[in-house]
Amino acid sequence: MADHGNPDLQGFNGAMAAGFAADEASAPQGSAQENTRVPIGVVLEISGSSSQVAFDLQRINECMDDADPSIALAGQVGSQVKIRVGDSWLLASVRDQRKDRRNEAGIIAHIDFLGEGSEEKLTGRIRGFRRGVTRYPIPGSLVYAAGTRDLEQVYSSDGRASVTVGKVFPTKDIRAGLYIDAMLGKHFALLGSTGTGKSTSAALILHRICEAAPNGHIVMIDPHGEYSAAFRQTGQILDVSNLQMPYWLMNFEEHCEVLLNSSGDERQVDVDILAKCLLAARSRNRLAQSMGKITVDSPIPYLLSDLGNILQDEMGKLDKATSSAPYMRIKGKLEELKTDPRYQFMFSGMLVGDTMASFISKVFRMPGQGKPISIIDVSGVPSDITSTVVAVLSRLVFDFAIWGRDDKTRPVLLVCEEAHRYVPSEKNADGSSVAKILGRIAKEGRKYGISLGLITQRPSDLAEGVLSQCGTIIAMRLNNDRDQAFVKAAMPEGARGFLDTIPALRNRECIICGEGVSIPMRVTFDNLEEHKRPASADPSFVELWSKGGGEEDLVDRVVMRWRSQG
């Protein structure tokens, strides 16, 4: 290898030559282990978590012909390499590469350290791998290819409860495991552009968790009705036809969102009137009278007709100087909610009974009866109150955990699909109650045994503080530059080499990093059985447009459903 007078490369050549001489003597020619025993490069510079190495182009080309796919990718971006430090191995990920202008046969690369393990004397492989670095190499240390047998030790389970979701890239048989306690204990986020297999991957992870914990408690907010098909056998499907969510479970802020349309000074007047009348309506219940002291937020049943009558009575007490407009505004909205059939799942007169305990048991799967997940399909909920419905369900999870902390209540996993709708970034923030409660769950939920799972295709539209609270990030392909930059900022330093491959991921591939995995990894998700997949497949235009007939009946059926929407 010519050095062209470069002192760094003279050292590189000397170190490589010494490494070849020592290692070629011990490696049988043509053996399967030869490429892991002979160095592929040398460390040039050490700086904290990231360092610079020089690879020998000839050695990298030799490795490409290896039958082991991990060795065949040695030295390439996103691959793993190992560096000997004393009697230990350091494992590192290759972040980038560039041609060395001063040396035809050299490649300069940056690597990120992932962790370390001891060396198995007979085979030279890594064993007892652990995350983090206690002892750094020095410039001149030799760099070797990491084979599949090394990576088996790195990715093998350390005994904690885990579920496997796919294969580690580029290996053929190493299973990718997620540590359930670590992943759920510090929240997780699944990110990916539309069409990358995000919904199917979410269903796969939840199916695996349900299989591992048949008595779990999982609540999933499904805005498009996709997941009903995936969990019909293993979960309970709740939509507007059977949710029967009592209106009186709303707190005062949620009541304001639903009943008040005014803004500015008018809104403050309306808020004061509603607070007074709502407290009076709740106080009429015998339950409230037996408790003595209640607030406007207390989940005490009340009659919608009582609230309407109290508003009417208060309006009748007005003197001539005071306007009756605020009372009429609130009363008009109340009448609309009572009579519009679209709101019957929540504002029905049948829901006035004290069903709070049975509603919580149904939604939180307590007991689960072998169906640990409840899918809340909000696709049929009127769009103007969808966020309020999600807010009520999320707050019930949080309040139940807070008031049950003395009993060490069972942990609940709340999964939110299309999370950027409910927890928008600061520039899109509207101060809604759902954003506040999900933000609070993200910050404080783990203290009370609540886990949050966020699924979104637009991470840059998600509140930054919420994403930063997710201890495990599962990133699928992201096509948007802003989304890619946002995810990179949220991920740990050691995963940078993997992150640069995000735009190049195939469908059903992802980068997983954080608490739920031993080290950052690129994973190909398993195929999910047909009956366990969500109904999110894209329609085939060519197939559907090539058939004809029956259009008149189709239009009639659609119009009938449209008119009778419930």
In the sheet with the most strands, the strands line up as: 9-8-18-17-16-10-15-14-11-13-12
Q: Major sheet: size, sense and barrel closure?
A: 11 strands, mixed
How much β-strand is present in the residues? Answer: 15-25%
Coarse structural class? alpha/beta
Overall mean pLDDT score?
84
Can you count the beta strands? 18
Counted by DSSP, the helix tally is 21
Low-confidence stretches are 1-11, 20-32
Tell me the radius of gyration. 30 Å
Quaternary state of this entry equals single chain
User: What is the global morphology?
Assistant: elongated
**Proportion in helices:** 25-40%
User: Roughly how many Å apart are the termini?
Assistant: 77 Å
